[in-house]
Amino acid sequence: MSAAAFFPLARPAPLSEIAQIAGAEIRGGPDGAPAPGELAPPPLIMSVAPLDWSRPGDLCFYDNPRYRKALSECRATACFLRERHLDLLPNAVVALLVDDPQRAMTLAAAHLFPDALRPGSLFQSSGVSPGAAVHPQARLEPGVVVDPGAVIGPGAEIGAGTIIGPQAVIGPNVRIGRDCSIGAHASLTHALIGDRVVIHPGARLGQDGFGFAPTREGYLKTPQVGRVIVQDDVEIGANTTIDRGASRDTIIGEGTKIDNLVQIGHNVVIGRFCAIVAQSGVAGSCEIGDFVALGGQSAVAGHLTIGEGAAVAAKSGVMRDLPAGARVGGAPARPLRRFLRGAALLDRLARKDKPT
Questions:
Q1: Distance from C-alpha of 58 to C-alpha of 96, rounded to nearest angstrom
Q2: What is the CA radius of gyration of the chain?
Q3: Mean pLDDT of the chain
Q4: CA separation (Å) from 183 to 4, 124, 159, 206?
Q5: Distance between CA atoms of 158 and 259, rounded to whole angstroms?
Q6: How many CB atoms lie within 10 A of CB 149?
Q7: CA 203 to mean position of chain CA atoms
Q8: CA 137, CA 170: separation in Å to the nearest integer?
Q9: Predicted model pTM
Q10: Whole-angstrom Cα distance, residue 176 to residue 190?
Q11: Environment class of residue 152 by beta-carbon count within 10 Å: exposed (0-12), middle (13-18) or buried (19+)?
Q12: pLDDT of 38 strictly over 90
């Protein structure tokens, strides 16, 4: 079976170009000198790789002491790292000195593999596929790509440069901005989507929120008449669900990144540049400020407010409002230091020998 290269290199990049893009200082280089009268060819970067799998032509980075041994055995052409770690790098590897190696690597990788920044057409086509179902009243700007099996309802509007994946469903009157990617089998109803939004396969936006009025005869369904509004530069992971609002809109703020398998309830308002990690859940009518981070499998109870810049540790349960800048953990969530001290104390008690 032949090996597939799913993300082709845009072009080989000289090391000086990579350094300029990342704002790095070049230090050191391979041993040996060119023959008299010859010029040494500039090192070219052909790919990216982890430290322990690297080989000549690769670019890598070092940002965690856990990989100290792998750094000492690195065989890449160049490596981003901080100056204080320079003595750990083999002499044959060019050092690219930066303050933030992970950020530098991200910039370089985006330059080398731009196609990996957002999903493309899975059918590798242009325009509307003959196998797609586009309603005559839908409005698509020039440059929209629609893969086979996609369904676009009446009144939907889709901006130039947007890609609609196979079997995706775009409901009536949905608005999608420019340069977006809507993954395979995603469904969008009752939604307004900004520019440069990435929605990964299987995501569901705009379905009913969980709204029922209890009565003696059972639960009475409450109509959910709001929308989902997703602002520019948001990314939504695979199989994430975002309910439309009941009486107001569910809003995802600019630049927010939502991981796979996240549940966002109705009427939730999430601020700008938040990070919500996989398997988290936010119950209805919560308001989350800008730059908030929710760790994996964390849960936020309904009708709460989380202040700007707060951080919630993984597997935590938030049951009361959090002020700006709070750091909490545990279930119920409490200040992180107190949670960690309590966990350490419980562990010490559990280790004690049983009384005779």
A1: 13
A2: 25
A3: 93
A4: 21, 13, 16, 16
A5: 24
A6: 17
A7: 14
A8: 13
A9: 0.91
A10: 11
A11: buried
A12: no
The set of residues, in sequence order, having a beta carbon less than 8 Å from that of 353 and lying 6+ positions away, is none
pLDDT score of 350:
87
* Confidence band for 32, pLDDT divided at 50, 70 and 90: very low
CA distances from 8 to 11, 318, 328 (A): 9, 44, 42
Q: For 102-125, what is the mean pLDDT?
A: 94
Q: Kindly list the structural domains of the chain, giving each domain's residue range(s) and its CATH number in brackets, ordered by start.
A: 13-116 (3.40.1390.10), 133-339 (2.160.10.10)
Annotated active-site residue 85? The verdict is no
Q: What is the pLDDT of residue 1?
A: 67
Give percent of the chain above pLDDT 70.
94
Catalytic residue among 135, 190, 266, 303: 266
Q: Provide mean pLDDT across the span 85-105.
A: 96
- Residue the block writes with tokens 């690297």: 54
Which 8-state DSSP code applies to residue 98?
A: -
Q: Is pLDDT of 325 > 60?
A: yes
Q: State both tokens at 178.
A: 């420019």
β-pair partners for 207: none
Q: Strand pairing of 25-27 and 13-14?
A: unpaired
- Single-letter amino acid, residue 83: E
CB 105 within 8 A of CB 59: yes
Torsion, Cα 262 264 270 273, to 10 degrees, reads 20
**194, 176 Cβ separation under 8 angstroms:** no
N residues, the chain: 356
